[in-house]
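FYI - complex with NAP, inputs then prediction.
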Amino acid sequence: MEEKREESIINKVAIVTGGSRGIGSEIVRMLAGKNYEVVLNYNKSEAAAKKIQQELLGKGKKIEIFKADVSKRKEVKNLIKFTLDKFYKIDVLINNAGIAQEKLFTEISDNDWNKMIETNLNSVFYCTQEVLPTMIKRQKGCIINISSIWGITGGSCEVAYSTTKSAINGLTKALAKELGPSHIRINSIAPGIIDTEMNKNLTKQDLEDIKNEIPLERIGKPEDIAKCISWLVEDSYTTGQIISVNGGWYM
Ligand code: NAP
């Protein structure tokens, strides 16, 4: 029965967590542009999610939106079940949802710390674990985690954030070894600075100073990350890598 259903879906199916805004919304547009059938996950930004859905439906694309707080196992289970009920299979999982917080390490509360770990790290654990049974059964799949430059270099006043992104990089490498024999690839993309609401607290001068440190002399755009994903989902021999997309900010 499942094989029959699968045959009826010619296009590949992708889930993008945190697809309502910023980098995630551009990943959704890119995948839909490649005729992927996409489930856009959102948590708080329902209006934004609906707007992207309307935009893509208007272009004849197949897109569903689904509200789930990916820091909660139960809601992740619902997201995966919804996707399989609608599209019968999952080819690609993009673990993109994330939050940031700037604070001195000495001022991080237990609550701050736990929220960061739950949202940025546990979400990757839950989403990846919940999609794996269907991917392992089909012996194929591609998982991409959105990490960060701070997961490699460490970011001052972003210790909790850097910790989660560094942990994602460790998870990516270890799990790639485990999943290789099942023909499932898992990689991380580590963006530098990208123009999204996540950086809304930075002043014009902050952005100018950062730009001056970047060899390519510009702040990144969500499309820069989407382009890397466009290549990575089609690739077949890259796994366990932390791919920096940062304009040369860190080499
Ligand atoms: P953004 O504009 O603030 O968007 C964050 C997205 O994550 C939103 O769609 C939000 O959805 C979603 N999200 C947050 N918590 C969630 C939860 N519990 N459950 C489901 N979705 C949740 O940020 P962005 O810049 O696009 O960041 C996307 C990813 O790139 C993050 O992992 C971030 O760490 C990483 N990154 C960003 C930069 C940068 O400079 N912007 C650099 C390196 C890495 P709702 O609004 O619907 O709640």
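Residues 93 and 249 are 27 Å apart (CA to CA). The chain has a mean pLDDT of 97.
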